[in-house]
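Service request form, structural biology core

Requester: graduate student, group of Dr. S.
Request type: structure prediction, single chain
Budget code: on file
Notes: please return the result as structure tokens.

Sequence provided:
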Amino acid sequence: MSLTYLRNATPHDLSAISQIINDAKTYLFNARIDQWQDAYPNRQQLEADILHQQSYVLIVQKQIAATAVLMSQPEANYQHIQGAWQSSQPYITIHRVAVSQQFSGQHLSRILFSNLISIAYQGDWRNFRIDTHPDNYRMQHLITQNGFQYRGIIHLNDAAKSQRWAYELNL
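Core staff response, request fulfilled:
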């Protein structure tokens, strides 16, 4: 296997990250999953993620193969949950996970998650949260394969149609 590692994204990576996100939006659209079908995430959001040093890229064969965000500030949408979080400790959130179409089928999302969790763990985070669309079975499978447990339903910006399934991992 070729050298594979995770690093912070830089402004130079923005075009590649944008392409990966746009391809993911197309995939979700074609799969009839109503996730990322509005203006989110947009280039401005991706730039802010990089600026705040919370954007990461997985490098494989010297190419950006995947992207994700580790957000350490509290997620406003997680304040109200139909269900219950297991822990009330501070948490870190994984957002905007996407793998390049060029690397599809190589199970890189497992490596991406492992690296994100390792980085956060080294920063003393023990509580991890993530959410996804109820119809995004592929992401649900990835989330649960990485040890996350389903905790309930959250709504993005309190909008009824923006229901998401919420998961938590405690180490």
